[in-house]
Amino acid sequence: GFFHGIHDGFWKSFDFNVTVNEAISESFPQEKTAIIRNYPILEVIRSCKDKKKNEKLPIIVYAGFLNEARGIKEIINAMEYVENRAQLILLGPWKNEAFQDECGQLVGWRYCQYKGKLPLEQAYNVISSSHIGLSILFPHDNYLFSMPTKALEYMAFGLPIIMSDFPFWKDTFSGCALFVDPKNPKQIADAICKLIEDPSLREKMGAEGKKMVEAKYSWEAESIKLVSIYRKLLGY
User: In degrees to the nearest 10, what's the CA dihedral of 126, 128, 131, 134?
Assistant: First the structure.
């Protein structure tokens, strides 16, 4: 629909095109197209205090849209195996009430807490209080080669991640994540327990992820590219 319309001629009236990933950029002429990704703003993240030192239980966090394709049922089912060794916190809007009710009936729900759809600063406070971040997306085409913003935010806070075992993600996030079959709750639970039981591994992977974001995946770095495009268009 929309991108077909652009491809068929709307883009011809544009001086320059900015997209968020390679798949979209392929619809535009490469000589006047750039990819500017929605990476975390480090200045905002650095303003949040680390609050996880005093937590009695390790906290696992998922932030984002709550639907089937984001593996929500699978991570809740994983908590059935983890039991009371950790708590899962969910942040974000539900697909609909029916899916929320369905998830609430799962055995693993007793080890979960839903905090709602929070403003960014409050969501960051929850993430900064957590120990492990989850990015367990199903292998849909638009996810396989994506750079998941929430995973990068977890990394910026020094959290190790448990991620879907997409080859692109395994290459990109090696050293700061454990990789699992997103449709296998037991495998997800085993990865959670591995990180729960090994604080030194959590710290090592979290430090590696934080270093990676600060070096390559921040909005501060992306904004330089965007300003450069503006300068070029304005003749500066």
Answer: 60
For 117, residues 6+ apart whose C-beta sits below 8 A from its C-beta are 91, 92, 93
Contacts of 201 (CB under 8 A, 6+ apart): 160, 194, 195
Q: What is the DSSP string of 9-75?
A: TGGGG-S-EEESSHHHHTTS-GGGEEE------HHHHHTSPP-GGG-SS-EEEEES-BSGGGTHHHH
Please state the pTM of the whole predicted model.
0.80
Residues 229 and 35: their CA atoms lie apart, in Å, by 11
Closest C-alpha among 192, 112, 124 to residue 158:
124
Kindly report which listed range (12-26, 87-101, 107-121, 201-215) carries the lowest average pLDDT score.
Answer: 12-26
- Percent of the chain beyond pLDDT 90? 61
Strands (E), the chain: 17-19, 33-35, 59-63, 87-91, 112-114, 132-135, 161-164, 177-180
pLDDT at 121 over 60: yes
Contact 162, 135 (CB under 8 A): yes
Give 229's contacts (C-beta < 8 A, 6+ positions apart).
Answer: 16, 18, 34
